[in-house]
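Project outcomes to date are best conveyed with an example. Our students and postdoctoral researchers have been running inverse folding experiments weekly, and each run begins with a structure described purely in C-alpha cells. The record below, which covers 159 residues, was selected by the lab manager from last quarter's runs and is presented without edits.
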C-alpha cells in the first residue's frame, strides 16, 4: 500500500467514525456544550472547527509544496480558534455536514496530486511545530478522532 492509499484510508476511517456519531444526533444534541470554559463550544461549533482547521491544514500543505511559509508572522492559535464562530458562522447541521464533505474532497484531491518527494517536505503547524506533509495528514485524522472523543464524552457516549 502506498502513502496516498494509506492516508486516504486512515482519513476515511476517522471520518466514518465521526459521521456515525454525528448522524445519530438529535438537533438538541448538536447544541450540547462540549467545552464550557470561556466561549462555549457546542457539538456544532466543534464540527465547524474541524471544517475550518482541515481547510487550513490543506492550505498549509499547498504552501509547503510551493516552498512558502505556512504561518504568518505572529500567528496566535488561541486567537485563531476563538474566532471560529465568526469565520464559520451559524450553520445548520446539514450545512456543517456538507462542509465536512466538501473540505475532505479538497483534502483528498490535494493528497492525490502529491509526488513521492512531497511527503517529507515540511512546514510549521501552529501547535505541533515543524512537521512533514505526511504528519499533516496524520494531524488531520488525529484531530478529528480527538474531537470525536470530546463529543462522545459530552453526550455520555464515550466508548
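After processing, the design step wrote out the following sequence:
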Amino acid at each position: 500500500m502506498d502513502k496516498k492509499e494509506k492516508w486516504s484510508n486512515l482519513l476515511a476511517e476517522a471520518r466514518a467514525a465521526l459521521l456515525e456519531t454525528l448522524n445519530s444526533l438529535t438537533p438538541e444534541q448538536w447544541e450540547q456544550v462540549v467545552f464550557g470554559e470561556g466561549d462555549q463550544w457546542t457539538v456544532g461549533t466543534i464540527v465547524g472547527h474541524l471544517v475550518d482547521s482541515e481547510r487550513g491544514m490543506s492550505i498549509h500543505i499547498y504552501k509547503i509544496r510551493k516552498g512558502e511559509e505556512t504561518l504568518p508572522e505572529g500567528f496566535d492559535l488561541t486567537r485563531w480558534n476563538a474566532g471560529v464562530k465568526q469565520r464559520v458562522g451559524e450553520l445548520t447541521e446539514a450545512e456543517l455536514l456538507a462542509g465536512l464533505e466538501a473540505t475532505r474532497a479538497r483534502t483528498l484531491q490535494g493528497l492525490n496530486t502529491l509526488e513521492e518527494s512531497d511527503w517529507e517536505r515540511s512546514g510549521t503547524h501552529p501547535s505541533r511545530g515543524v512537521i512533514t506533509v505526511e504528519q499533516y495528514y496524520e494531524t488531520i485524522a488525529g484531530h478529528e478522532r480527538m474531537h470525536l472523543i470530546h463529543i462522545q464524552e459530552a453526550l455520555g457516549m464515550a466508548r
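The first strand starts at residue 33 and ends at 35. The mean pLDDT is 92. The training component of this project remains on track.
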